[in-house]
Amino acid sequence: MSQTKALKVRLTLLCVLAGIVLALVAVVTDHWAVLSPRAEHRNASCQAAHFGLWRICTKRIVPGDGRDRSCGPITLPGEKNCSYFRHFNPGESSEIFEVTTQKEYSISAAAIAVFSLGFTIAGTICVLLSFGKKRDYLLRPASMFYTFAGLCIFVSVEVTRQSVKRMIDSEDTVWIKYYYSWSFACACAAFGLLFLGGLALLLFSLPRMPQNPWESCMDADPEH
């Protein structure tokens, strides 16, 4: 592999590494979305919530002096209680989430995110093995694994987005306001870095294209 192409591969792998870190942060944290119910009285406490792929945290706070009637912001001090979703840990109590959304959404988003991490592990193994002599061809399956990981993160993000939308639109819920938080932003950034990084790695790891009409790929000079 030429020095120019090797430099491009290293820079691409740095971007992919950043995507892996962001994906891991998004999967293990619980700030994908923040939900706020209606605050009936300005001086009365209310319960807001934020959740991730595995658990939900509720916080009892006293609303601020904003004009809207929603409970928040969630950054206000208050009593916080976190619990894993009941379908992941039957011993935990998370009725607030069981009532307000379909557990299929949560299970699907979490499972797809786990698949994404599995693809990143497989891609990283291929990259590490490619450091051996004349094993540059392993960068190609690694690039595909990273691309698939990015796509899985995107699907997980979309499933979560649809879940939040259904919670807000449902007449059986108390939520009237929501916004996506920093874990959601990490997942979106991870999708971009993994997907684009995987495609770039595939492009850089392909054999040199023929430079003349009469030259074939088999005629190209070896990269080692």
TrEMBL record:
InterPro entries hit by this protein: PMP22/EMP/MP20/Claudin (IPR004031), VDCC_g1su (IPR005421), VDCC_gsu (IPR008368)
Topological category with respect to the lipid bilayer: Multi-pass membrane protein
GO cellular component, one term: L-type voltage-gated calcium channel complex
Primary residence: membrane
Alphabetically ordered keywords of this record: Calcium, Calcium channel, Calcium transport, Cell membrane, Disulfide bond, Glycoprotein, Ion channel, Ion transport, Membrane, Transmembrane, Transmembrane helix, Transport, Voltage-gated channel
Membrane-traversing stretches: 107-131, 143-159, 179-204
Subcellular location: Cell membrane, Sarcolemma; Membrane
Record function comment: Regulatory subunit of the voltage-gated calcium channel that gives rise to L-type calcium currents in skeletal muscle. Regulates channel inactivation kinetics.
Record-linked PANTHER family: VOLTAGE-DEPENDENT CALCIUM CHANNEL GAMMA-1 SUBUNIT, VOLTAGE-DEPENDENT CALCIUM CHANNEL GAMMA-1 SUBUNIT-RELATED
UniProt subunit comment: Component of a calcium channel complex consisting of a pore-forming alpha subunit (CACNA1S) and the ancillary subunits CACNB1 or CACNB2, CACNG1 and CACNA2D1. The channel complex contains alpha, beta, gamma and delta subunits in a 1:1:1:1 ratio, i.e. it contains either CACNB1 or CACNB2.
Name of the protein: Voltage-dependent calcium channel gamma-1 subunit
Species this chain originates from: Neophocaena asiaeorientalis asiaeorientalis (Yangtze finless porpoise)
Gene that specifies this protein: CACNG1
